[in-house]
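Please complete every field before forwarding. Incomplete forms are returned to the sender.

SECTION A: IDENTIFIERS
Entry label: holo-689
Bound molecule: zinc ion
Molecule representation: SMILES string

SECTION B: INPUTS
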Amino acid sequence: MTKEILLPSLWDDAKAAAMDEPGKLLYRSNLLGSDLRITNFGGGNTSAKVAARDPLSGDEVQVLWVKGSGGDIGSMKLDGFATLYMDRLIQLRAQYRSLDQEDAMVEALGHCIWNLNPRAPSIDTWLHGFVPQAHVDHVHSDAVIAIAASTDQVRLTEEIFGGALGYLPWQRPGIDLGIKLGRMAEENPKLKGVVLGQHGLFTWADTAKDCYLLTLEMINKAALWLEATEKRPAFGGEKVPALPAEDRAATARRLMPLIRGRIGRDEAKAGHFTDAPAVLEFVNSHALEQLAPLGTSCPDHFLRTKIKPLVVPADADDSTLDALLAGYRTDYAAYYDRCKRPNSPAMRDPNAVIFLVPGVGMISFAKDKATARISAEFYLNAINVMRGASGVSTYQGLPEQEAFDIEYWLLEEAKLQRMPKPKAMQGRVAFITGGAGGIGSASAERLLREGCNVVLADIDKSALDEVVAGFGKRFGRDMVRGVTMDVTSEAQVIAAVEYTVAEYGGLDVVVNNAGITSAAAVEDTTLAMWNRTMDILSTGYFLVGREGYRVLKAQGNGGSMVFISSKNGVAASPGASAYCTAKAAEIHLARCMALEGAPLGIRVNVVNPDAVLRGSKIWQGEWSQQRAASNKIAVSDLEEHYRKRSLLQRSVFPEDIAEGVYFFASDLSAKSTGNFLNVDAGNPVSFTR
Ligand SMILES: NC(=O)c1ccc[n+]([C@@H]2O[C@H](COP(=O)([O-])OP(=O)(O)OC[C@H]3O[C@@H](n4cnc5c(N)ncnc54)[C@H](O)[C@@H]3O)[C@@H](O)[C@H]2O)c1
Ligand SMILES: [Zn+2]
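SECTION C: PREDICTED COMPLEX
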């Protein structure tokens, strides 16, 4: 056990020997950031003071390389560091008088930039710059924050670190805290760093390697001491037993759409669920009721998780949820009113981000899946901190006003204002059948480009895996999932929609697209061919449509369904009676569902493609030969044949169909339901009548 909690040194002298100082700083940062026990995602920063040339004068100058605003030390590259002239930073220090200058001082950092580096310096810059030692690490280790968030943190710091680390009480990071930290380092040459109250660890050393090793040593000390000292069982022991794993998953699937619908009315949110052992230990514990309302401690934690989570009973029904969520919003508004200052930004979304379900686990919702997942990771950090602190002392969150001042800091607001506008489909979730095929994957891409999360369902596993991997690379792995499924199997359709809800918390868009073709004269159409065509196209669309509809209804937030039918659904073609009839059934099913869905805000529309040869797998097989034969032309002439047949004399591609899908999936068509849109370059036989 003890061995497992100890962080090993991953420093490789041979590797480091070839690196210059900025290279070693990057190496150290990536090593530190690659272990969540050392720091949370995006948390902490590292620095080195390095001699360099002034680009204008050629003189040697001291430059502070310090992780800039944004990014994560685990994955950052060299361009993630801001670079600042040390002498100018020291000049700014001389100008600083009082706390009300802090924000202006951050603006003034712009005058200290070395070499026109565009990376913005963060507010932690001062905490690195004013420490005299060349190398400084700042990390948010759970073990150290546990000590920093205990009521007797000063005594514990002394006891555990035996004078190697000093203690600075909580203060919002900025030049003022930087000056205090620098002074402490200067006046106490024996100190190797400090514990920042409620916040984290600072360590310093003369070389990159020593700084890295020192950071590990201090975290290991804290972790070992906690392990040896913690009261057990953690959190006062179990109050509620964990449900069996399957029931936990089923409860999460039931609750997530109910919550999502209620908190996503203004802005759609993507969800995440985890029932990791450390989460269950906390949500099932006696201490949950007492600790959860205290809120998180490290500012990084609550910026992501909101000041506190909402506890939701596993059996909560609609009215319980209404009351709980409304209660949270009222509390949040009251917190805003209590703490706001005359120039505070307007109140932001008052809904909870973290939902703790005793017996079940933790649900999180945020503007996109990655943010929801990372918020859950941060709350897990907070749980670790609370377990440590309450195991050896009494846990204390950050004082409410301090939390508010961070949350509504004007600098934080300015950062938010600079962020790009949300994409049209941000936070929404689409389920697309036949997603590995031509039209399905083009539609997925169109929606992904608008920020939509997409679940692709297909019967062809290898094609599906390839498409999902490709999208994952381009749009981010959190944005896309694949599920193998046969649309003719009721059980598989139910499981695939359940999977979607489990992965993203709900559903907004269903694209019914999986398909095959069949062609034969009526007298040659076997019952097997007829049934197979009907099963996949009309029955398959029904099963997928029904399961999607059930989720949309439970969510209570409307939604959009798009059925990919065909020209053949409106215009009969010879030699394909089963296909044409099945496609017509799809259109009529869409109309029936549009009728029933309207009072719920569920829109159902149809896109009718025609002759989309390129990219389509159905045109790679027999269908092409039959179509070519029935038109008495060569297969290679088909594309040209269809182009010439169209009114606009143009070929139709999967991307063109995808535009129609996007139109109906998005709010662009908010006032359309029960419609169909032909995307076929014009064909009089399918004009609406
Ligand atoms: N391409 C065209 O010219 C054209 C014209 C009119 C209508 N359509 C319709 O567009 C839709 C998509 O066609 P496409 O051109 O992209 O074809 P495609 O063959 O490239 O894609 C269809 C996808 O559906 C999947 N699929 C087949 N049977 C399935 C099942 N039982 N369960 C789950 N998935 C299954 C296939 O594996 C494939 O990936 C179909 O409904 C088709 O009828 C296409
Ligand atoms: Zn920090």
